[in-house]
Amino acid sequence: MLQRCVLRTYHVLALVLCVSAREDFDWTKNEKTSFYYSTFPTGFSWGAGSSAYQTEGAWNIDGKGMSIWDAFTRKKGKIFLNDTGDTSCDGYNKFKEDITLMKDMKLNHYRFSISWPRILPSGLKSEHINEKGIKYYEDLINMLLDNKITPIVILYHWDLPQLLQEKYGGWQNVTMVNYFNDFANLCFERFGHKVKYWMTFNNPWSIAVEGYETGEHAPGMKLKGTGAYKAAHHIIKAHAKVWHTYDMQWRSKQKGMVGISLTADWGEPVDITNQRDIEAAERYIQFYLGWFATPIFNGDYPQVMKDYIGRKSGQQGLGASRLPVFSPQEKSYIKGTCDFLGLGHFTTRYITPKNYPSGLGDSYFTDRDLAELVDPKWPDPGSEWLYSVPWGFRRMLNFVKTQYGNPMVYVTENGVSEKMVCTDLCDDWRMQYFKDYINEMLKAVKDGVNVKGYTAWSLLDNFEWDEGFSERFGLYYVDFSNKNKPRYPKASVQFYKRIISSNGFPNQREVESWKRKAVETCASSNQLLAADPLIGHMEMVSEIVIPTVSTLCILLSAVFLMFLLRGRS
Ligand code: NOJ
């Protein structure tokens, strides 16, 4: 009896602790304070990011298998100008040069991903391990460590082995959970003595919605209203399984951490005094970030997703919700499987309710019953979806703090692109974006959000998925037309370097000089780049024109000689 009482008290206490770990996010408060001069806590980690398919190239080199992106980019009309990541930045061959760039910026970490088909060409560990692929990542990791740059490794940045797509339907099939776990286990085994920061998935929202709902991304499936939910369900299970594998088999030896990288935009109520706008904005975020974060931190899908998708499925006459259900065992297995949260964030939307009556067109987007708006005054220097709204970042970070018990956060992606037409290495707008977004992150740290590191997206211009090479996010410009893929620093490299060396924004006088100083150097980089087509032209002369002309000369001389000999005889 006494034992029972103690147990019950313990349960009540545990419940109180759990509940008290979650605070309410204050939607009605949106301070847009002025620039905040201060520095980050000592040990704050500064980095830059990339992903395998976007950067490596070498798509069929050294035994690599095909990924769904290799297959998707081969279909005409899927990618802007039918570009592919076949060679991209040639990061596979140029990683040493890239580490020199990182070292020059004094980066503390580099966030990259491992290509699953590069080390398991068919996707299956039981079939074939490609040692050359393993060697590439070993060399990369070793060289990073030699240069005191911490590797932060993502296991899945969208490049599923194509054979797993063909045989099983990719993330529509629950068997991916075990295959992914085998792949992750192999990575822990081979690299885990050196890598201490792992993330299972990057931006699963995009994998699910763009891969299986809209079909804009590989594998290009358009399973409206069901595909994304199913893919996400399996991804969440796969994440949890990998976390448990690490926890049980590797943690005590390797002493690393396993998290997940979730990317989400912020949703701000159009009118913060209107309760319906607030609810719609919260719905937007729960369908975005909460879809993945709530099961992982709190044990199940957000209630609002269960309510909305369940009700709409009922109205469609379906016997069950289109949102799959976790069993009680699965819920407790998934809950708490995150040692730290990776957060990717780029932009913000204003949100207001909009009713979509249920019917044939049901989809992830109509399930949410809301409309997204933007302020025409927000700067939008690059990608059409990317408006610069720095205060949304602080709101997002505070939301994470209140909803998920103030987890340790590493910002895994934040940055801005530029459109292809204007090649200008003096990227004033990017410096402004970084300055303002990093400053809002600093305010969030002051608010008590547990942010430990920041990753600028991206180190290099790279393959921007369905946009091909037309949108450039890099700190470094890459000349894709030149087969050597030379890198050129944009002014933002100098600017980011100053933020890193000052660990923030020490004082107004100093910070205000940074942009001016950064611009002084970018003019000469612009000149170098302007000369680059000449280099490309010279290469063409030496590699195509000269050999062709020489061969023609030899042929002509031979013919001439033949005539001469005939004439004599
Ligand atoms: C997030 C994705 O993870 C990354 O691959 C992409 O380049 C950026 N968004 C910019 O669109």
UniProtKB/TrEMBL annotation:
In terms of InterPro entries, this protein maps to: GH (IPR017853), GH_1_N_CS (IPR033132), Glyco_hydro_1 (IPR001360), Glyco_hydro_1_AS (IPR018120)
Q: What is its EC number?
A: 3.2.1.21, 3.2.1.45, 3.2.1.46
Q: Which Pfam families match?
A: Glyco_hydro_1
Q: Which residues form the active site?
A: E413 (nucleophile)
Q: Name one GO biological process term.
A: carbohydrate catabolic process
Domain of life the protein comes from: Eukaryota
Catalytic reaction list: beta-D-glucosyl-(1<->1)-N-octadecanoylsphing-4-enine + H2O = N-octadecanoylsphing-4-enine + D-glucose; beta-D-glucosyl-(1<->1)-sphing-4-enine + H2O = sphing-4-enine + D-glucose; a beta-D-galactosyl-(1<->1')-N-acylsphing-4-enine + H2O = an N-acylsphing-4-enine + D-galactose; Hydrolysis of terminal, non-reducing beta-D-glucosyl residues with release of beta-D-glucose
- Its transmembrane ranges are 544-565
Tell me which UniProt keywords the record has, alphabetically: Glycosidase, Hydrolase, Membrane, Signal, Transmembrane, Transmembrane helix
The record's Gene3D superfamilies line, in alphabetical order, gives: Glycosidases (3.20.20.80)
Which top EC class is named for this enzyme in its record?
hydrolase
MF terms in GO: beta-glucosidase activity; galactosylceramidase activity; glucosylceramidase activity
Instruction: State what protein this is by name.
Output: Cytosolic beta-glucosidase
